[in-house]
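Re: beginner question about structure tokens

> Can someone show what the tokenized structure looks like for a real chain? I only ever see the sequence side.

Sure, here's an example I had lying around. Input first:
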Amino acid sequence: MTPETYQLADLTSFIRRVFALNLPQPVWVAAELAQANDSRGHRWLTLVQKDPETDQIVAQLEGIVWNNKLRELHQTHGLQLINGLLQQGMSVRLRVSANFHERYGLRLSVEEVDPAHTIGELERRRQLTLQRLSAEDLLGRNARLPLALAPQRLAVISSGSAAGLADFREQLDANPYGYQFKLKLFTAAMQGVQTSPEIIRRLREISRNWQDRFDAVVIVRGGGGRTDLAAFDDEPLCRAVAEHDLPVIVGIGHETDETVLDRVAHRSLKTPTAVAVFLIEQLIRSEVNVLQLGRRIAQATQQAISAERPRLDRLARTNRQLAQSAINTEQFRLDRLEADLKRLPPAALASANDQLRHFEQLLTALRPETTLARGYALVSQDGRLVVRPEDIEAGELDVRLKDGRLKVVPV
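And the corresponding structure tokens:
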């Protein structure tokens, strides 16, 4: 027997009636928002449920907050709260009507939102993150890094259009002390699902390429509600801040709520303006410390001089006495040298005259004439003196006497 075949419109109409009969009233449903987009004044949602162990999606439905309902929720709970709740990644509890349309399929229409559920879930996640970070000693790790005495070179992570960034810059520029700050902006989303991954990328970029050029990292943004700050409870982001090589100072615009980021940062201030004031006060303290140190050095120097003054005076007197003694000794030696100089030239001259006379007498005694005068003769032949008989050759000999010469022919 051939089974009955339905027309598609008949089947979809049947399903619509099933839903209308079995879910006639809105129901509360808890889910996570995988997507949240605005179009033509409506907010389109993708609701999912994930396996807590594998994080895999086990159920998924599309939902919508119609324009008029969205305005009503804004009036009831506040624009900022609802916009913060209905964001991607949020855990929500919604009262919905299940509507099946023959053409567009099943869709959940949001009638009401339970802010307490989301805020409670955010707090539960926050506490779990704090427990894990505390167990790994990461809550105080960045705070233990030394902050420069005068932190003026700052890597600023913020949205380029953030009002908080403008407040931060203005406060620094308008400081009445003339302190100069060097800022470099690293832009990142400050709200929504992209906040954590973008800030993490910026932190890694600073650590990799810019670490030696900055004294600290500053993360600032404008004000926001509790749900707007959910991204700053993200565990990977908080780990990146806790483990960063530079001190990280945060001012993310909240007056009462504390995020996990506040707990892991080196210093947390309530607002960007407060961060600027803190930095200016750091420079004031540094300047005061330098001035006080200068005064202490001057006082210590004066005290040391006063304490050493008697010894210095004694050393001065001793040096003067030693100098005078040395001068007297040298004066005596100079006088003696002067006397020697006056005495030595005549004595040396007389000694030289005696030596000259001696040499003159010696020269006179050694002259040939003196020898000839004593009866000796000089015999030569052809200009050569003859001293031995065998030196005589044939020919005449020249004999020189005291009073003349003789020519002698040897036989």
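Each token stands for a local structural state, so reading them left to right follows the chain. The chain has three domains: 8-113, 136-285, 369-408.
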